[in-house]
Amino acid sequence: MRTWINGLYIAGFLSLFVACSPKIVQVTTTEKTEKHKTPFLIERLDSLNKTVPTYFYGKASTNYKDKNRDLSFKTSVKIKSDSAVNALITFAGLPIVNSIVTKDSVKYQNKKDKCYSENSIDYFRESFGYPFEYENVIQLLLGLPIAFESDNKYFQLPDNIYHILSTHRKSQLKNPEQLYVNNNTEDDIIIKYFLVNEGNTLEKVEIDSPGDRVKISVKYGNRSTEPETFNYPQLISISILTEKNEINITLEFDKLEINQVQEINYTVPKSYESCK
User: Fold this and answer.
1) pLDDT band at 12, cuts 50/70/90?
2) C-alpha angle 95/222/27, rounded to 5°?
């Protein structure tokens, strides 16, 4: 139980049961018509990261697949951006997993086995080899540039289709594992942002942690054109490749609510025991 729940947390805390074919995000294949300078693209990413709503609600059909399982379920996600992200996972209308992430903790309840787990935010690093923070979970679920910091140094990589910004130069990316060996630090993580159109649409984020041998790819598709939910992705595809497993998660949202007040309540029943 614990192994696959770890994978679900990265996608917004997902769930179990029943197999179906996961949706595939249709990525851009048309060649870009105009090049943009790196400072312009950095400004675009910074602008995207400032679009975080105060409240968010989404209901998604979700598929989780790894080497041993192919499962589908429903996920209801609530975000109160200044304090918590909550996900309730259901199957056939019944709650299976309830989870919450705050700025310093990751907690979940396994309602099937009537147990709970409480962890620090370091839980993500221990599970995946990447130090996801609270803000990164919000960015992932809203289709925003994960772990982007406008004050950091970024480099533009050549490409015919995407405007790509990277935390490392092209020469450094030829041998990522040697990069880790040379710097001798687990915190030397490579992140690439893939922008389309005029640099105002983020289609993909790739994260490579050579020291931990972890690769994560997040693709955003089917962005909403409705005025209230404009440009939020209705389809998110996440791939996590580790030395021991390959995890693929898709969330297909059929309902989105932006800046409508959401109450987040998370309490553990007294009868629950600690999950083993």
Assistant:
1) very low
2) 115
Q: State the Rg of the chain over Cα.
A: 19
pTM of the predicted model as reported, rounded to 2 decimal places: 0.85
Residues 6+ apart with CB under 8 A from 6: 127, 128
pLDDT confidence of residue 10: 40
Distance CA 122, CA 133 (A): 8
Say what the alpha-carbon torsion angle 19, 99, 74, 205 is, to the nearest 10 degrees: -80
Cα(7)–Cα(5) distance, integer angstroms: 5
Tell me the residue type at 20: C
Distances (CA, A) of 37 to 49, 69, 149, 155: 19, 44, 18, 10
Q: Which of 81, 82, 108 is nearest to 10 (CA)?
A: 108
End-to-end CA distance of the chain: 10
C-alpha 262/C-alpha 56 separation (Å) is 7
